Amino acid sequence: MAKDYYQVLDITKSSSADEIKKAYRKLALQYHPDRNKTKEAEEKFKEVTKAYEVLSDTQKKQTYDQYGHSAFEQPFGGAQGPFGGAGQQGRYGPFSYTYTTSGGGPAEGFDFDFGGFSDPFEIFEQFFGGANPFGSSRQRKPTYSLTIDFKDAVQGAQKKVTIDGKTRNIKIPPGVDNGSRMSFGDFDVVFEVKGDPKFKREGNDIISEQELSFSEASLGTEAEVETIDGKLKIRIPSGTQPNTVIRLRGKGVPSLRGSGRGDQYVRIKIVVPKNLTARQKELLREFEGSKTKKNWF
User: Fold this and answer.
1) Could you read off the pLDDT of 154-168 as tens digits, one per residue?
2) Rounded to 5 degrees, what angle do the CA atoms 225, 174, 251 make?
3) Which tens digit of pLDDT belongs to each residue from 213-261?
4) Residue 110 and residue 81: Cα distance in Å, rounded?
5) If 0-12 CB within 10 Å is exposed, 13-18 middle and 19+ buried, where does residue 227 land?
6) Side-chain half-sphere CA neighbours of 188 within 13 A
7) pTM for this one?
8) Which of 40, 54, 140 is CA-nearest to residue 96?
9) Which of 74, 59, 56 is nearest to 5 (CA)?
10) 53 is in which domain, residue-wise?
11) How many domains does the chain have?
């Protein structure tokens, strides 16, 4: 019996498109045959790829939720697929693809579906740095590496690059990540993104820290938090504990493909003072002596 696709990707039915993609990317990188040579990894890679192919497509996901695996167990060549029309299937490398026609020959055009990507090359370029499963069937364009700042990657930027002695202006869209590959006409660029001392990126989400004093965390305060859009004032409730995480909706990285933004997660760090005055020590001793189990917890 085929494994449940949600269990394969370690997600739930309520997972968003970004969460599905993030889960697949993590597993695909872990089990890709070029990285993991075990036989088990090869089978696992095929398994997670098939699951992603279905769950990343809204219509296929809806059909899977209603009918399960049986909706996709159609015979090859000319069979009626679950979405109508004459369907055919094929495979290049580890990725399956399907296409449908309106009933005529090749001249009538094709409607290709590569699980949310424009073609199989895009899948490999996004996840595996441009590895080409088609050999020399596609003409390779010159590829260059460009290092950019974290902020430029998140917010987008205009850059001047010199290619074969000629200066070119390229527009970097918001949301590119380390290893993202993009085409700029007659050449491709693979981006390397510098780290940032204030922010850590996880997919389209951003992680940051906010320092608070013991008294600020205990009494509550209004703190000024750094975001990629600038400073933002947030209310810190009284009794905030160390490592508390505050979610700032929509303050993360814009989606490179699609719409929307991730979130920013602010982790609270309580700073303990190293040098106290005699009066401060006295007040702390009074506090320590006056606390009760009821008001301490």
Assistant:
1) 999 999 888 888 899
2) 25
3) 988 998 999 999 999 999 999 999 999 999 999 999 999 999 887 778 9
4) 15
5) middle
6) 16
7) 0.51
8) 54
9) 56
10) 5-128
11) 3
